[in-house]
Amino acid sequence: xxxxxxxxxxxxxxxxxxxxxxxxxxxxxxxxxxxxxxxxxxxxxxxxxxxxxxxxxxxxxxxxxxxxxxxxxxxxxxxxxxxxxxxxxxxxxxxxxxxxxxxxxxxxxxxxxxxxxxxxxxxxxxxxxxxxxxxxxxxxxxxxxxxxxxxxxxxxxxxxxxxxxxxxxxxxxxxxxxxxxxxxxxxxxxxxxxxxxxxxxxxxxxxxxxxxxxxxxxxxxxxxxxxxxxxxxxxxxxxxxxxx
Length: 244
Known about the structure:
Layout: E1 8-12, H1 17-28, E2 32-37, H2 40-50, E3 57-61, H3 67-81, E4 86-89, H4 104-132, E5 135-140, H5 153-173, E6 178-185, H6 194-197, H7 214-225, E7 235-238
Parallel strand pairs: 1-2, 1-4, 2-3, 4-5, 5-6, 6-7
């Protein structure tokens, strides 16, 4: 397994939940981390709680659904650290509603964040990694993307599309030394559904009583990043051992 000491890692959706946990795990490994999201105050809190010292992190407020936002993240990372070793597309939104209750705005919001944001990261990050002759992009998907699920059908479809996009692009760039990996967690205890809808109700997307913690997901992300340089994990599904 390779060391992550002094590697440059970018994490989107880094202000809370899984994203904040991913930042902490990379900090433990000695990485330099760029935290990206829309809320600067929450990003600052996430950085403070991660244990990262001054000079080892950078905060970028940006909208990942706009190319200008993705350019901002990438350009500030290069300006601060000079390279990008690992880019984690963690930002995601979901709505728990029947298809007939789902609005066009909610549909667009899920596809813009969960799919377009990743597409834009490919456009901005892959050219840099090609020049570096290596790097890794890790996309946070969902086990829901492996099959359609009732009440989260649109969300599940964004993750299914993300899986296919990631696999296709991975085959395009693997000979450039670039890894594109997908982690698909199931039943994670987060409030990610609030991020887009603002609704103050529990995320009912899973009936499983036992859920993965954000730390467990973050540890799986770091494990992917520590793979042998010649090994490539294309898709990994992470589930709680028990659902009772």
